[in-house]
Write a structure and sequence with these properties.
The complex is a heterodimer. Chain A is α+β, with helices and mostly antiparallel strands. Chain A has 7 helices and 16 strands. In chain A, the strands form 3 sheets. In chain A, strands 7, 8, 9, 10, 11, 14, 15 and 16 form an 8-stranded mixed β-sheet that branches. Chain B has helices at residues 39-46, 53-61, 68-84, and strands at residues 8-11, 15-20, 23-28, 33-36, 49-52, 88-89. The chains are: A alpha+beta, B alpha+beta.
């Protein structure tokens, strides 16, 4: 992350973004949340501007490439909208395969937890990070089409109040967040992965079931992954081919659980390091 | 004997098949859907290379405990289903 006054420059999935923030306190908050992201080597292609707030005596305003996106009196709403816009932008721009999933890692082995929004993958991902896995993403498993490597997408973890209380009960109250609050892995005692990763394990998690981890056939998992791809149908055949190659050396599991912390502890105990994890 | 057993069968050009964990997973490009074959269907699919259904049944006869008649019926059932879904075609001789 590069700081120039109130500029915050990041490279997220290959998209170079500059965020210009007037308010010093908000700038510090965003710097903290984005501190694990790569510094771009070239000038930004996307510009977000955040103006207003207490120091400016008025509403917060978010603009993207000089077009208005949001005006609100709530700083928390602005931050949520900013990260939502950033997420949509970088996933649209990403040229590889992106699958709706939480992702953590042990060593060089990435562990993907596929799931749609609301399925609990962010909470389970955060629990895994708190349990000692390194953080890769709480939103998408991103795979480079040419190398097959997992591309980290360590956006801030987005956790509801209930999940925050579960994962980090001693965390200070919320700063006005009503919905999901963005957190860095460090906020929950974890760290972001910094090594080259390959997909090693795919965990199909079923919340509401008895705590259990059992092997699963990859042939069952592949259609699930394809179903959760972000891209449109135009590239599905190519994605199918790439995914079937990417998962060939993976292990697949079914994880039943009630409590995310118990599930994370089980994965930590029971998931052996794979060859990719070395 | 089912008529389908007398005709050659092969994978449709729009069927993208990959063997994973010993079974075939097939992406149907025409209908944008995925089908996962079980053990016996995968064994049949593996032999759909232009030979007839009857030849497939004879090839499999040694590897399964069922009678030749039962194998022919099972092969016919699988071939009919995969043909009706467009994943298999009958190539010209």
């Amino acid at each position: 992350m590069s700081l120039t006054g109130t500029n915050i420059d990041i490279d997220l999935l290959g998209t170079r973004v500059r965020t210009i923030v007037d308010d010093l306190e908000l700038a510090g908050h965003l710097r903290h949340l984005l501190s694990d992201l790569r510094v771009p080597d070239e000038p930004p292609t996307e510009i977000f501007e955040i103006t207003g707030g207490v120091t400016q005596g008025g509403d917060w305003v978010l603009r993207h490439n000089e077009r208005g996106t949001l005006q609100t009196s709530s700083r928390a709403s602005l931050v949520e909208r900013f990260f939502a816009a950033l997420n949509e932008l970088v996933l649209d721009d990403f040229g590889g395969i992106a699958i709706h999933a939480g992702v953590v890692a042990q060593g060089r082995g990435a562990i993907a937890i596929p799931g749609k929004s609301g399925a609990g993958k962010s909470t389970l991902t955060a629990a895994c990070v708190a349990a000692g896995f390194s953080y890769v993403s709480d939103e998408a498993l991103c795979i480079d089409r040419s190398t097959g490597e997992v591309v980290p997408y360590p956006r801030p973890l987005m956790l509801s109040a209930t999940s925050r209380f579960l994962i980090a009960p001693k965390m200070q109250p919320d700063g006005g967040y009503v919905g999901k609050r963005p957190l860095s892995p460090a906020d929950i005692g974890g760290r972001t992965s910094s090594v080259t990763l390959r997909l090693a394990d795919i965990v199909m998690a079923e919340r509401g079931s008895t705590l259990n981890l059992e092997p699963l056939s990859l042939s069952i998992v592949l259609p699930e992954l394809l179903e959760r791809c972000f891209e449109g149908h135009g590239q599905r055949a190519e994605t199918f081919e790439l995914l079937s190659t990417a998962v060939r050396d993976c292990r697949a599991w079914r994880l039943g659980y009630q409590d995310a912390l118990d599930a994370a502890a089980l994965l930590r105990r029971a998931l052996p390091f794979s060859q990719a994890s070395g | 004997m089912s008529e389908i057993l007398e005709r050659p069968v092969a994978a449709a050009p729009t069927a993208l098949a990959r063997e994973i964990d010993g079974n075939f997973t097939i992406y149907d490009k025409q209908n944008d859907r995925v089908m996962v074959l079980n053990d016996s269907a995968s064994a049949i699919w593996r032999l759909c290379d232009g030979r007839t259904g009857l030849a497939i049944a004879h090839e499999l006869a040694g590897g399964f405990a069922a009678s030749p008649g039962e194998i022919e019926r099972d092969v016919a059932t699988v071939l009919e289903e995969l043909t009706s879904t467009g994943l298999l075609v009958h190539p010209a001789h």
